[in-house]
Description:
Elements: E1 2-4, H1 6-14, H2 19-25, E2 28-31, H3 32-40, H4 48-53, E3 57-60, H5 65-71, H6 77-89, E4 93-95, H7 99-107, E5 112-113, H8 115-124, H9 132-142, H10 148-157
Helix pairs in contact: 3-6, 5-6
Amino acid sequence: MIVSDASSLINLARIGELNLLNKLYGKIIVPEAVWKKVVVDGVGRPGAEDIQKADWIKRAPVKNRNLVRALMLDLDAGEAEAIALSLELEAELLLMDERLGRESAHYFGLRYIGLIGVLIEAKHRGLISDVKSSLDTLRDKAGFRIAQSLYERVLRDQKE
């Protein structure tokens, strides 16, 4: 079971690679706050319709509202609900890019991966030929921010 925050969904949809998540992980579960941010509030924005139509992306409510409220002292609603839902469902993996969210996930012992990790995994499984073109497209088309030092390290590690 894989739970996702909004970032990976939005950014992959913006570059036409949303289906990588389905190919890598099968079904993806998102909490209501992520669905609202991406599909409801994001109506008309790139990716919103693709995410809404993806039958492999499912919504699930979070039961532990106290935990969500506590997490929202530092995180947005989507991140807070994604962490709480991951704990409730005992998710195998949490897709999350934001540093504070990942730190919170680590605190709770959750296994997580960010968008760059998803691309590296997709390359290793032969779903994409290289990471560089996807990273470049993410930066240029989706406005995805990545530190130059990280960009260079990823490409060096991937021998690109």
